[in-house]
């Protein structure tokens, strides 16, 4: 599949593999299987606690497949450590009014740690994991500065709504290249999609196949008919729907069979069928984002 062009001229693969919460041998086996199936984009984050395993997996990929670092597109995110699935508030939140924190030093340290663990001298993309309210502009300015040093090929954000962009863009010198959010046929986020298109910000879709756990997706007659029409699985239909809208899905799986199936997308969805799938939207929010980021 042809890649997607970012606003700084960099090309990103049209589909990738998410890695949370995989670690250790499970992550290595999944990433190696993914590369053998054709994946080149891999996504992780400081908050996932698996960057060390991610680095080990990369070395095994090079040994097993002959794929080189230059063939891969690696994304990580700066952010808080997670405690019981929620940011622990130690890095990017104020404990008391007026408190200042070493934001640039914290961001730089996380990026340098990723470089060390991945055994690489550059990262393809670094994102802000959440729109941390206390120091959001400062985190973005730090990424801009590090980007200009040449060790990151593109910078972006994750879980941003329009108001978060407006806060950052008031003084930013670089428009984010990516916004990684969750989109599905039952939560299309049309306003966010339109905003990002206007700003030339590419959308990555994390957990794109999570809706498959809900009967309203699994048992939907429209989707079942479209699967028959395009001779594909429901997972393939949703991933192709993402791609044909200009989005980059990053599904996660530890199954080599599912990884292979998820990238077998040698068909396109007709425009009227894309719209038909989008018409299923009911703004169904199944990820508790406000819990992970107060003030979201």
Question: Care to describe what's here?
Answer:
The chain is α/β, with parallel strands linked by helices and 296 residues long. It has one domain (4-285, 288-292): NADP-dependent oxidoreductase domain (TIM Barrel), CATH 3.20.20.100. It is built from twelve helices and twelve strands. It has helices at 24-37, 51-65, 103-118, 136-148, 162-169, 190-198, 215-218, 221-230, 234-244, 256-262, 271-278, 289-292; strands at residues 4-5, 11-12, 16-18, 41-43, 73-78, 82-83, 86-87, 123-128, 152-158, 178-181, 202-206, 248-250. Helix 2 links the parallel strand 4 (41-43) and strand 5 (73-78). Helix 1 (24-37) crosses helix 2 (51-65). The longest helix has 16 residues, at 103-118.
What is the domain total for the residues?
1
Through-space gap between termini: 34 Å
- Global morphology: globular
Q: What is the CATH superfamily classification?
A: NADP-dependent oxidoreductase domain
CATH topology: TIM Barrel
Tally of helical runs:
12
Low-confidence stretches: none
Helix and strand layout, with pairings?
Blueprint: E1 4-5, E2 11-12, E3 16-18, H1 24-37, E4 41-43, H2 51-65, E5 73-78, E6 82-83, E7 86-87, H3 103-118, E8 123-128, H4 136-148, E9 152-158, H5 162-169, E10 178-181, H6 190-198, E11 202-206, H7 215-218, H8 221-230, H9 234-244, E12 248-250, H10 256-262, H11 271-278, H12 289-292
Parallel strand pairs: 3-4, 4-5, 5-8, 8-9, 9-10, 10-11, 11-12
Antiparallel strand pairs: 1-2, 6-7
Helix pairs in contact: 1-2, 3-4
């Amino acid at each position: 599949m042809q890649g997607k062009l970012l606003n700084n001229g960099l090309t990103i693969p049209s589909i990738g593999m998410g890695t949370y919460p995989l670690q250790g041998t499970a992550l290595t086996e999944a990433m190696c299987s993914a590369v053998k199936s054709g994946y080149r984009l891999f996504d992780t984050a400081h908050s996932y606690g698996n960057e060390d395993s991610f680095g080990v997996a990369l070395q095994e990929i090079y040994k097993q497949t002959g794929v080189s670092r230059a063939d891969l597109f690696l994304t990580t995110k700066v952010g808080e450590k997670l405690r019981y699935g929620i940011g622990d508030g130690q890095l990017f939140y104020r404990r008391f009014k007026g408190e200042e924190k070493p934001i640039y030093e914290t961001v730089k340290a996380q990026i340098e740690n990723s470089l060390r663990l991945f055994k690489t001298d550059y990262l393809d993309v670094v994102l802000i994991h959440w729109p941390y309210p206390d120091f959001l502009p400062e985190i973005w300015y730090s990424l801009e500065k590090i980007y200009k040093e040449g060790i990151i090929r593109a910078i972006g954000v994750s879980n941003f709504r329009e108001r978060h962009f407006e806060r950052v863009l008031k003084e930013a010198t670089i428009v984010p290249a990516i916004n990684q959010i969750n989109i599905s046929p039952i939560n299309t986020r049309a306003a966010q999609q339109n905003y990002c298109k206007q700003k030339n910000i590419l959308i990555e879709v994390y957990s794109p196949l999570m809706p498959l756990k809900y009967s309203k997706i699994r048992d939907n007659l429209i989707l079942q008919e479209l699967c028959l029409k395009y001779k594909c699985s429901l997972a393939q239909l949703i991933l192709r729907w993402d791609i044909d809208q200009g989005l980059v899905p990053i599904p996660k799986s530890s199954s080599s069979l599912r990884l292979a199936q998820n990238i077998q997308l040698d068909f396109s969805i007709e425009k009227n069928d894309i719209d038909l799938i989008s018409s299923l939207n009911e703004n169904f929010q199944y990820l508790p984002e406000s819990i992970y980021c107060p003030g979201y």
